[in-house]
Amino acid sequence: MDYRKAAQGVYDGIGGRDNIVSAAHCATRLRLVIADNDKCDKEAIENTEGVKGVFFSSGQLQVIFGTGTVNKVFEEFISIAGISGASKEEVKQAASARQSPWKRMIKTLGDVFVPIIPAIVASGLLMGLLEGLSKIFPAMAQSGTYTIIHLFSNAAFVFLPILIGISAAKTFGGNIYLGAVIGMIMIHTDLLNAWSVASAETIPTAAAWFGLYDIRLVGYQGHVIPVVIAVWFMSKLEKKLHKIIPEIIDLFVTPLVTVLVTGYVTLTIFGPVFSWIETGVLNGVQYLITLPFGIGSALAGAIYAPTVVAGVHHMYNALEAGLLSANNLNTWMPIATAANVAQGAAALALAVKTKNKKLKSTAFPSSLSAFMGITEPAIFGINLRYTKCFAAGCIGGFCGALVAGITGIGASAYGITGIFGYLITTEYAIPYTLVMAVSFAVAFGISWLLYKEPKPETARESKTMEAGKAADEISEAPDGAVQKMVGKEAGPAKEIVYSPLSGKVIPMREVPDETFAAEVLGKGFAVHPEEGTVTAPFDGTVETVYETGHAIGLTGKGGAELLIHVGINTVELNGTYFEVHVSEGDEVKTGQVLLTFDLEKIRKAGYDLTTPVIVTNTDDYQTVAPNLSVTGKRSEPVLELERI
């Protein structure tokens, strides 16, 4: 591969030097921030030699080359552009700065509400299971066990402002314990519980701002946005005080002033104002969803997938949390399910109809992932490339959400959609099934009718034809010339890859990153690690060690090229919590320690540690078959490779 030619293709495709804000790379892709996205010729970049995928994400243009290639292309790229490489954090900051205030706000909401999903899911599942079981066994509702479990099934919702306060403080860089205190103030027992207002004879009040006006002494149960605003203010104030308060008294003055000022402003300004705004938004959404004949829900189902593409779908987490907190029913979740299942069905129709084996092998797992609630592989890997399929998915989402609106169904939690959504929709199992069935049938049928096999004269297929021609030349070459042309001898017919980590082994389609899940970089498997040690998966050579320590590339004795990528987006840690124990060029044995990492600290930093193990030269093998039934111990055989 001509790395300079590939770099030149990317450089030309983005519009040259004047359109570059910053550039960096991770283990698999170039990460570029460009000034004007409209000047970017995405199709030209996709047709550049070596490019495996191109997409915009979080304000960055990400160009996938794969391990061992991306660093060489990057060196040529910065040489051509006449710039210096930026750190990943600098690129991230530059990308954020390029985003509109609206997108930055949406991302911030996602950063606040996504981390608390496990708590919401736990409570929601317990609530849903209790309700479902009590329907089957009515006497159960009178038992002591039911009473006890019901008590903690809604704990996350009762104390939701505290959870939000902690998560928001972490997002805004404030003290998480002070954030928790602000959440506690907003639901303090001295305030009238918001859910009791309707039945209260009188509502207590207090004079604010020296008698300027009165406020109602009512808690903020059922509200989420006022807490976020309050903790944002708290974090800003705390940082300012740390700068101006002398260190000798900072320890007690800053927390005191921060809580005193934030608490008072919250109960007298932020709470009343933003709870009124939030109530208006929730009422508007509920009105939309309850429009006659389900029209509002249908429109929401149609636009859901485009908001995923735009990267603003995280705002729905705040919406769903608000619906649950206010009404104990998340009526948005079935709409999301309709949209997700429809995109999966559209991809499945393509998978069934296409004769392209590579496309089929990507589309099948991508569609299954969508049925489980993870749509990025189907949307970004398949449907957006074939826009009629994406449109079919949107139409299917419209129809499925129409059913959801007509039936008025809802869920007891958020963060789960698709097939697993049955666990939080136990009271609506039949209409929920109907929602998915309609979404699936409409999207699959339309996608099947609209999808046409592309003609074989595309740029990518031309490359494939050239590769086939090269293969013919190799087969016709005289003895001794083959190795010179290929670069190395072929390995054994079968090779074994052992697990480099201890933990649960999962299929690649379940990795929460569209590039890995769609197997753009190659087939393989992934591990949910239980300890922070990565060992050699076979006897071989260390080809690439990334400066951030989060990824390592190896070549086995048999020729398998493997990338081990610890976690998702862990490149952003810039090496913190990682320690590499080998160097490039080292010979390693199966089970030898390659790198270690602090599993708990990385998780506390908010990163998913799902670790893909990718055969980057997948095309050299006719079989790449992971054994997903293994016990999850390190150095256990997981993958069998069989050469073509």
TrEMBL record:
Catalytic machinery residues: 26 (phosphocysteine intermediate)
Alphabetized UniProt keyword annotations: Cell membrane, Kinase, Membrane, Phosphotransferase system, Sugar transport, Transferase, Transmembrane, Transmembrane helix, Transport
Location of the PTS EIIC type-1 domain: 107-466
Transmembrane segment boundaries: 108-128, 148-169, 176-198, 218-235, 256-277, 289-312, 332-352, 364-386, 398-424, 430-451
InterPro entries hit by this protein: Dup_hybrid_motif, Glu_permease_IIB, PTrfase_EIIB_Cys, PTS_EIIA_1_perm, PTS_EIIC, PTS_EIIC_1, PTS_IIB_1, PTS_Sugar-Specific_Components
Bilayer disposition of the protein: Multi-pass membrane protein
Record GO terms (molecular function): kinase activity; protein-N(PI)-phosphohistidine-sugar phosphotransferase activity; protein-phosphocysteine-trehalose phosphotransferase system transporter activity
GO cellular component, one term: plasma membrane
Annotated Gene3D superfamilies: Glucose Permease (Domain IIA), Glucose permease domain IIB
NCBIfam families cross-referenced by the UniProt entry: EIIB_glc, PTBA
Record protein name field: PTS glucose transporter subunit IIA
Phylogenetic classification of the source organism: Bacteria, Bacillati, Bacillota, Clostridia, Lachnospirales
